[in-house]
Structures are given as structure tokens and as C-alpha cells.
Design a protein that fits this description.
This protein has one helix and 13 strands; from the N terminus they run βββββββββββββα. It has one helix spanning 143-158; strands spanning 2-3, 6-7, 10-13, 18-21, 30-38, 43-51, 56-64, 69-75, 81-83, 87-90, 96-104, 110-118, 124-130. Strands 9, 10, 11, 12 and 13 form a five-stranded antiparallel beta sheet that branches. A four-stranded antiparallel beta sheet has the order 5-6-7-8, with no helix packed on it. 21% of the residues are buried. The mean pLDDT is 82.
Length: 174
């Protein structure tokens, strides 16, 4: 839930019959993007989008089932870019992947996809992929519109500029 626009996550231990609030979440206003329980590593993974006055960006936090903070990683982005929403997927017990659309600062419109890999030490690699670099991204459009967009992409690339798109994209588990 939320309290004054700050995310709160509580767990209930049935063996001790005690509720507990997970620490380190109520510092800044933000949105809880994903809460995922991992049976293999016995952890609870959180992805938070913090939108406070002093801090902005995405945080990945991992907690044990007893409520202890295991990992706390702030995802750093270039100044003009921000992850709009995202999803966590564990590759194995140690490494995980974060995927989501990225956009310009506070805009709800995305310009491409972000892919990040986080290892056990909290180090991560990130890559921003523009929609123009995805070969089949525009296949859902009619042929005339797809051709018009491909011409626009070619014209921008001739001028050595990055093609810009503004789409609303929401990732969901299927």
C-alpha cells in the first residue's frame, strides 16, 4: 500500500504471528513497480520508481523472507532519460534482468526499451535500445504508415540525429 504517496510493503510471519513492515521504503514518494517472490533464492524482489525532491530514479531492493534487506541497487540513468516502468526477471539465483520502456524525464511517453543486468555484487550493465533499432517493432502498422515512418527514420539518420518516437508502452506479464 501507500502512505502519503510513499510505498509500504508488509509481510506476515505465520510462525511467530507477527506483521512486519519492510525497511527502507518510506524515504521518498514513489511508485511500486513490481513485487515478486522468488522461491529458489527465498527472497522478495521489489522494483521502485522514486519521484521525490531529493532523489529520482529506479531502485531494486531484495529482502529475505524474514524482512532483512539483502540488496539495494540504485539504477543510474543519463540526466535526460528515465525508466517509465519496468519488470524484474531472475536469470538464475544470482543474476537478474530489468526491462522496461525509457523516456525523457517525467514524460509518460517512451522512446525505446531499457535492458539492465544486475549481478550479485549489485553491479549492473545497462543498454538503451531505440524503437528504430528494433527490426520488427513497426510491423503492427499498416504498410503505408510503416513506410512513412521508415522514411522518417532514414531522413533523421542522414542528418546524424537519433530518431525520436513517443509511444505509451506498458509491460505486463503474459
Amino acid at each position: 500500500g501507500y502512505h502519503t504517496y510513499r510505498p509500504i510493503v508488509g509481510i506476515y510471519d505465520f510462525s511467530t504471528t507477527r506483521p512486519q513492515i519492510l525497511p527502507g521504503l518510506m524515504n521518498e514518494p514513489g511508485l511500486l513497480q513490481q513485487l515478486k517472490r522468488n522461491e529458489n533464492s527465498k527472497t522478495i524482489d521489489l522494483l521502485l520508481n522514486i519521484q521525490g525532491k531529493t532523489q529520482r530514479g529506479m531502485w531494486y531492493k531484495s529482502y529475505s523472507y524474514s524482512g532483512d534487506l539483502i540488496s539495494n541497487v540504485q539504477l543510474q540513468f543519463p540526466r535526460k532519460q528515465a525508466l517509465i516502468n519496468g519488470r524484474i526477471e531472475r536469470l538464475d539465483n544470482e543474476n537478474l534482468m530489468i526491462v522496461g520502456p525509457y523516456g525523457i524525464r517525467n514524460s509518460p511517453y517512451s522512446r525505446g526499451l531499457f535492458v539492465g543486468l544486475i549481478d550479485t555484487e549489485g553491479l549492473y550493465l545497462s543498454k538503451f535500445i531505440n524503437y528504430a533499432d528494433l527490426p520488427n517493432f513497426f510491423d503492427f502498422m499498416r504498410d503505408r504508415r510503416k513506410a512513412r515512418i521508415n522514411r522518417r527514420i532514414a531522413k533523421r539518420r542522414e542528418k546524424d540525429k537519433e530518431p525520436r518516437f513517443h509511444f505509451k508502452v506498458l509491460l505486463q506479464d503474459l
